[in-house]
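Recall from the previous lesson that a structure prediction takes nothing but the amino acid sequence as input. Here we apply that procedure to histidine kinase from Halobacterium hubeiense. The sequence below is the only information supplied.
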Amino acid sequence: MTTATASDSRRRLAGYAVAALGVALFAVPVYDVWDDTTDLGWALLPSLAENVSLFALAALLVAGGVWLARSRADGDHATIVAATTFAGTAATAALFAWIVVVQSWTMQDLKPYVIALDAVVVGALGSFGIGVYRARSASRRRDLRVERNRLAGLFENTSDAVATVELADGSPAVSSANERFRETFADPEAAIENAARLAATSLSSLLDGDHDGETTTREVAYSDADGVHPVADAARDAREFIVQFVPHDTDRGRTYVYVVATDVTEQKQLAREREANERLDLLHEYASKLVNAESRDRAAALAREAVEELYAPAAVRVVLDGEVVAGPDDADATFDTVAAVGDRGRIELAADLATRELNAVNVLATHLDDVLGRLDYERELADEREELDFINRTLRHNLLNDVQVVKARLQTLDDADDLVDHRDVLLDHLDRMAEFVQTMRTYTKSLVEDDEHVLRPVDLRPALEAVADGTRTAYEDADVSLGDVPEVAVSADELLEPVLENVLTNAVEHNDKETPRVHVDAERHGDWVVVRVADNGPGIPDDRKDAVFERGELGEHSSGSGFGLFLVRKTVESYGGGVEIRDNEPTGTVVRITLPVAST
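The prediction returns the following tokens.
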């Protein structure tokens, strides 16, 4: 038997017991009417008039008992009422029995007026008790009214949506709701019913008293279009609530369920934004690590670590070129989410992600693809440099040795006057071959050692003086002058002098004047130094000023390899500087070489 059924049984038993007492008390006025009309000879009407109040009181007691049995009062409450009634009846009967016995035994006579006055005293005392009870009840009702008004004001002023549910005609119904609840939910009863269903609780059971007093809580989403539904299925415009079902039993045997809905949409949005920011910070952290990855396997392992940390404990693996390079190698594993790593492979995740979460994995996969592309390029470049270095060393060793042998043999023909012209031509070509090999050595060194290119401070003025002196010696007909040069060290290496020498040599060799003039000076501008090499040659057309720096580009009447100015620009750019060509006045060309000042 449930608690509610036992309480109903006690209530009905108590009520019908009181009603039975009322029926039994009908015997008093019935006996009095019978005695008046038989023994005393009274007429029936006066006797009924005398006992009408007793009939009415007995009838009221019967009606009260029936009402108590059929009311919704708690079984304990009904039992107290019945016990009090029987106790009061017994006490009154005992009192009057005592009075009758005393008068009959001691005085040998009954005094009806004394008995009536005793009844007045008993009535007065009973009235006093009833008055005290009414006063206390009025005070309790006043306190309850104040508390009810306070709670009503609290419900109206709270930011939560609050409603009260109770049984109406055997079914749960909303008996009251604050303004926030009515404004929030278009159909309050449907919203509460669906929320209770999602919370796996029964309003009928709670209202029947079948509960342990614990609050039931459930997080739900709500929109006017879709009503109450799970948060996972929430539309973009839905709001999120924490709904609490709080059962409350009154001392009158009634049960209410307070439904409190707290809007947590903003808090949830802030939490999601915080999680997104933390996820973004994590992606940035791993992006930095990926940039510094030195191998394909290390990059794949970092990508897997990032996804695991973002969406742990889901299984993650990275597949590149059809091979699992990071993560579990389980052919039967199921992976719900796949992010493509370009056309190289994919990142697989054993979790079904939302769109915004999948976007984060896709960003990571794209970054991994970029890093793998860089690693492939660096590996190919390293292979090419290794091959280039091998070719350079082989050419220098074999070709220069052969040049030296041929040159030595030609120099033994000094006494053969008829071969002097041929010898001089051959020696000139050998010098050009040696120069070309040296040029290729410089170019190869700038490429092969690009990643390990260590710059050092180089004093600019001594370097320019050495190059100017060398040019004067090589070209006696040229007028090479050195102007103002600041005392400054530039960030360069041992290739600086060959670069400057190449520029001055070009200024002399491509000059069409009888006396080629070349003037060199330099000027500092903050952290930079600009070296100017000006000549009086024919000049360079505007449409060829950039073209002369291209690989293999030959000037008019040039017999060179086309690598000179190309190597000049490549080397200067490796220093962090630049080279440009401008027109000289009134004629000729100015080559401007910008070099960074060495840090102290």
